[in-house]
Amino acid sequence: xxxxxxxxxxxxxxIGSAFEKKYPEIELEVFQAGGSQVIAKVEAEAMSGGIxxxxxxxxxxxxxxxxxxxxxxxxxxxxxxxxxSPGLVGENGFWFSPWYLTSTIVYNTDRISEADAPKSWxxxxxxxxxxxxxxxxxxxxxxxxxxVGIWQQQFGDDYVNKLGANGLTVFEGFGNVHESVLxxxxxxxxxxxxxxxxxxxxxxxxxxxxxxxxxVLLTFAAAITKNAKHPNAAKLFQNFxxxxxxxxxxxxxxxxxxxxxxxxxxxxxxxxxxxxxxxxDLDELSDPNFIAEVKSNFKNATS
Length: 303
Fold this sequence. Notes:
By secondary structure, this protein is an alpha/beta fold. The protein has 2 domains: 2-100 and 218-278, D-Maltodextrin-Binding Protein, domain 2, CATH 3.40.190; 103-216 and 284-302, Periplasmic binding protein-like II (D-Maltodextrin-Binding Protein, domain 2, 3-Layer(aba) Sandwich). The protein is 39% helix and 18% strand. It has helices spanning 9-22, 35-47, 62-69, 142-155, 158-165, 174-183, 193-201, 231-241, 244-254, 282-285, 288-302; strands at 2-5, 29-32, 55-58, 73-74, 99-108, 133-136, 169-171, 188-192, 206-209, 215-219, 221-225, 257-258, 277-278.
């Protein structure tokens, strides 16, 4: 079975290893990259003879909305998908999100005190933070595309222009942002919740902020391709993502907010229901023209 995923490498390896242990008769071939790279690979293959993956798994879930409408996926939901939190099942059952993420503001606690840390998204455009903030590139990370697109929906086109004018440092992926904050190169960063939670668990000098406007809510999307060569194995994999084993592992070991609502209180990570947040207009965020505009605006603002 072939799995294309934009899960971070440690998460993809942990999930893949657990699946192979449970189903040793299934050989799992994995392509892992940033969300924008995985989406681009799927689009290129769809135009040139067929998608090679049986399962696609995006960290930028909105991409699946448009692809489902274009007939790239087959309809399948695991039997337990009815227990997913609201908003995690795509229209007509072509995809689902096994977990949530957020993107938010983080800071290096050795360099910045809690009292001095940024309190809002808009504060990052102030002179105090000029040249001190890092962000992942939408050209690589699907979660960066989603974050910037949601900013644009919430704050308007000019927000990214102001960030760029304030010396925003752009890295390839969120892993690079994470390391930059820990090293103090950029003592403030826009980071993903699971990375911030893992840093706290590991005792690293990083803390997150829930901005006054809220953290940015992000969903994944897992789907079986329309002409999957191994559809039965793909269905087993989809079912596997919603088992107690993987939902617990994803929360406790990776730091994802579990999609299975009854699991949330047992995992030891923060209660997402108690975190102020805002999400996307998924239909707009799935529009290739809107995504192209988001990427172009970001590149022009930060170059």
